[in-house]
Amino acid sequence: MAAQPNPLATGRPVFVVDGSRSPFLRARGKPGPLHASDLAFQAGRALLYRQPFTPQDFDQVILGCVMPGPQEVNIARVVALRLGCGDRVPAWTVQRNCASGLQALDCAAQDIASGRSELVLAGGTEAMSHAPLLFSTAMVNWLAGFSGARTTGAKLKALTAFRPAFLKPVIGLLCGLTDPIVSLNMGQTAEILAHRFGISRELMDSYAVRSHQRLDHAQQNGHLDEIEVVYDHKGHYYPADDGLRADSSMEKLAKLKPVFDRPFGKVTAGNSAQITDGAAWLVLASEDAVKKYDLPVLGRVVDSQWAALDPSQMGLGPVHAIAPILKRHDFDSGDIDNWEINEAFATQVLACLSAWQDEDYCRDELGLEKPFAPIDEERLNIDGGGVSIGHPVGASGARIALHALKTLQRTGGKRAIVSLCIGGGQGGAMLLERENA
């Protein structure tokens, strides 16, 4: 694998000065209390209140979102106007499936590095619980025929063509989580990785328990101070990620049945990311903007990489995106102080760790002469991940980037890698550094 030029190295430095997120709220079988734009607005409002500049001082707003509601078209612009950015601050929405939030950050960083922007608000949002139920094609065709009937006789004839089966809804979320090219949903691709790397059900469940334990520890010790309380329209408030199962255990997880490959599969609801609603924002700035507004600096965006692979192996996307970054900077795994690899599935992260150390995979798929050193799991997702926190697909990339910088600040580390697998067979990664390290 030939090392490519660092896309951010030739431009101006890009700083992250602040960030915030909403709690990640688990879907509970019905639409959640807040829409995607509401979550982004409330998380962003708290963030902007504490800045020494006004919302109108942003050069642009970029927001990742996979499935905004029908009244949230170009959701970035909707939220920007609600946040008081004014008529003259442009805003645009990006969509790269699970890494939409990271794509927003990368777009912002590239524009600052090139000199097109000085100050950008970027992040991601998603309300997966609000994914629509759709009419089937048969139902739509029947409605079209009925509405087109002009006489009483024609309407009666159309009525006789109706079948109760037409009312069976199409689940929009399931459609969105199914790859149309290989006809596999994301859980089925996780089963493929489990088979390929020999990952057992027990190992998956053990990883899931650890994710909950780490989130529980983080909540108990105040390691998630980037979260802002959000409020619904009924006066209820939500102060923390509510998908935590502090009492999770191997015994409880063992009772769950496989979801995606019945009855022989290994991937269950307990060792998969939760369906979740949430939003996250970061403020990115040039050096000139940092000086102009006397801004604190959380860290710097050093490098980014996007990669693609077989959609049926999509969970290995992080390996393909991270490897070129380490190659460009002549780093090995031990040079990274904090790793955030989004937990779409426990087996997906475990497969990435296995591929990272597999000589054949690194040679044949990545073009490496030898594998990288193993990733220290004590540095990986140290405060939990998608299995315990949840994975609102448009927001997760921004969440892990923000939390990685917060973790470096807390622990005194210097470098972090954040990465996600992406439905459709892609991977994204970003290298971050604590500026005053």
Describe the protein in words.
The protein is α+β, with helices and mostly antiparallel strands and 437 residues long. It has a domain at 184-222 and 301-432: Thiolase/Chalcone synthase (Peroxisomal Thiolase, Chain A, domain 1, 3-Layer(aba) Sandwich). It is 36% helix and 18% strand. The chain is built from 15 helices and 16 strands. The chain has helices at residues 36-49, 75-82, 100-114, 137-148, 152-160, 172-176, 186-197, 201-220, 250-254, 287-293, 317-329, 346-356, 359-364, 386-389, 396-411, and strands at 14-21, 25-26, 60-64, 91-94, 119-127, 133-134, 170-171, 178-179, 184-185, 230-231, 237-238, 276-285, 299-308, 338-341, 415-422, 426-433. The strands form 4 sheets. Strands 1, 2, 3, 4, 5, 12, 13, 14, 15 and 16 form a 10-stranded mixed beta sheet that branches. It has a two-stranded antiparallel sheet with strand order 6-7. Strands 8-9 form a two-stranded antiparallel ribbon. Strand 3 (60-64), helix 2 and strand 4 (91-94) form a beta-alpha-beta unit. Helix 1 (36-49) crosses helix 2, helix 3 (100-114) crosses helix 15 and helix 7 crosses helix 12 (346-356). The longest helix is centred in the middle third of the chain and has 20 residues, at 201-220. The chain is globular. The two termini are 30 Å apart. The mean pLDDT is 94.
Question: How is this structure best summarized?
Answer:
The protein has 437 residues and is α+β, with helices and mostly antiparallel strands. The chain contains 15 helices and 16 strands. 36% of the residues lie in helices and 18% in strands.
